């Protein structure tokens, strides 16, 4: 809870300060509700959620004084209601070995770091994890994964710079099988500048994985950077089409006062949200739960 509420402090401060400013000794009426909606929009909750939440607050005690704490409590409840249907724990089927997870997202969104965080969590639970450095065009991304792999005791499968990522996927699955790994996490490139190329590459990776194992990949995690704001909504659409995303991870919530974007995404897409990133360290990944997130941002 400490890590979560600390990580969401900037968003929480923006919202709670806004609510306090608006409702200290003032009535709940059309004007104050409009101001509340502005606060929610500025925190990036999106038009749909902001309007609905504001309406729900409006129903509470119209034309009467209302304490900021009461408004925050209603806000927390409403945010939780939006998030509840999408907050799903990430489940690994223990019977499927290796459980193959493809990690996608635009460059810089935090894919490699998220892979390291997940690997840290699972190796900590005694699972054997193999990492595939599928962002073969960026030597730095491969090196970064290798450093993490060494630190965490997870084998990293990598190819030559510019090597075919699908070929690497094939090798990584073979290696994970050979070594009896529980989980294979595969990094990918995220060059959104060339969408056709990216699409071809991801499709090929999926095709090769399926050839190696019919049900693979068993999960496709899309990593989204919370600091890009509403752009994240488009990224979900693009990657859903290209890669058949099964769930989301939202990173860098510690770096923004606009963490409400997660609410906007929940409302717009309905894709499961599994984890949130609240820092750069290996432990800064939290399972996503509606109630805690709502409480953390409503203060
Ligand atoms: P990739 O290109 O998608 O693999 O992105 P990286 O994993 O290399 O991350 C890009 C930058 O974001 C790095 O400097 C990471 O340390 C940083 N980063 C990743 N996740 C988080 C997070 O949850 N919080 C913060 N503050 N930084 C993060």
TrEMBL record:
The keyword Cell membrane applies. Its main location: membrane. One of its GO terms (cellular component) is plasma membrane. Residues 272-285 form the SRP54-type proteins GTP-binding domain. Its EC number is 3.6.5.4. GTP binds at residues 105-112, 187-191, 251-254. Keywords: Cell membrane, Cytoplasm, GTP-binding, Hydrolase, Membrane, Nucleotide-binding, Receptor. It is found in: Cell inner membrane; Cell membrane; Cytoplasm. One of its GO terms (molecular function) is GTP binding. Part of the signal recognition particle protein translocation system, which is composed of SRP and FtsY. SRP is a ribonucleoprotein composed of Ffh and a 4.5S RNA molecule. Belongs to the GTP-binding SRP family. FtsY subfamily. This is Signal recognition particle receptor FtsY. It comes from Methylocystis echinoides. The gene is ftsY. The chain holds residues 42 to 340 of 353 of the full protein.
